[in-house]
Design goal:
With about 270 residues, the protein is of the alpha+beta class. Helices cover about 20% and strands about 30% of the residues. It starts with 15 loop residues before the first helix and ends with a strand.
């Protein structure tokens, strides 16, 4: 039964002052039921203007309601694919990773693996990628982005290091294509799994940006691809499978917008 915290027993009426005190005590209880744990700090920030192309690292980015501003706003649609997810990714064309968008706020050109700088909306770029893929494509821009499962992805450096050790490699963070790489105070890997259901807060301000951690990040063959050569190494994904059932990192939605910067403290907010 839900009861007004300011309501008295039947037949008894509290004064306005007493009701105000009751509400204050009730609100204090709610506040005290939240636990804040300092995790570490932001190590890297990256946005990926074109889905599956190379990312653009940045020292600061605005976190909007649809992820980092400018992240995954462009994607190539496979014209012959009638599925619910027709977007071209590097899992189908690994060389897509070697295309580098450039531009400050929004990409204006893309540098091809051969060194050509082509305008992002040009038929030349579209034909170039379609020729390598072997099927017609259309470059599209979506205002709110093109995402797999959620608008924000995060991963902990300790998780990347553990997978690298298991695979016998020193892994580049770019393999995991996360928006936010966190350097946690703990060296324990796969802590991200325990963050699910909680919130990450960036900074110490009362209005600091915040995200809801919604689910672990189940990995695909993308992490097998070297970001500099696009060559495959199956040992990376196999290591993730052995260590943590192929989960590495986490997906999130935005709970509060704001500016995120490299070096900013990161805290976990959990309601108990």
């Amino acid at each position: 039964m839900n009861r007004d915290p300011g309501a008295g027993a039947p037949g008894f009426t509290l004064s306005l002052a007493s009701r105000a005190l009751a509400y204050t005590c009730f609100a204090s209880f709610v506040i005290l039921s939240k636990v804040i744990v300092h995790l570490g700090h932001v190590h890297e920030l990256t946005r990926y203007p074109v889905k599956s192309m190379a990312g653009l690292p940045t020292n600061s980015a605005f976190l909007g309601w649809h992820g980092l501003e400018g992240d995954r706003r462009f994607a190539f649609r496979r014209l012959n694919d009638k599925s619910e997810f027709p977007w071209l990714s590097a899992s189908r064309l690994p060389e897509l990773l070697l295309y580098q968008p450039n531009g400050l706020e929004e990409p204006t050109h893309v540098r091809t693996p051969e060194g050509l700088n082509l305008p992002i909306g040009s038929p030349e770029l579209q034909d170039e990628v379609a020729g390598k893929f072997g099927s017609p494509l259309e470059l599209m821009k979506l205002k709110h982005g093109i995402f797999d499962d959620a608008t924000v992805s995060v991963i902990n450096l300790a998780t990347i290091a553990a997978i690298g050790r298991e695979a016998g490699h020193d892994l580049d963070t770019r393999r995991f294509r996360a928006n936010i790489v966190i350097a946690s105070n703990s060296t324990e890997p796969f802590l991200e799994d325990s963050w699910v259901g909680g919130r990450l807060v960036f900074g110490s301000d009362e209005a600091a940006p915040m995200i809801n951690i919604t689910m672990p990040d189940p990995r695909c063959v993308m992490i097998n691809l070297d970001p500099d050569t696009a060559k495959q190494d199956p040992s990376v994904m196999k290591a993730a499978v052995r260590l943590n059932e192929n989960n590495a990192g986490a997906y999130a939605t935005v709970a509060r917008t704001g500016q995120i910067t490299v070096g900013q403290p990161v805290s976990l907010l959990v309601e108990t």
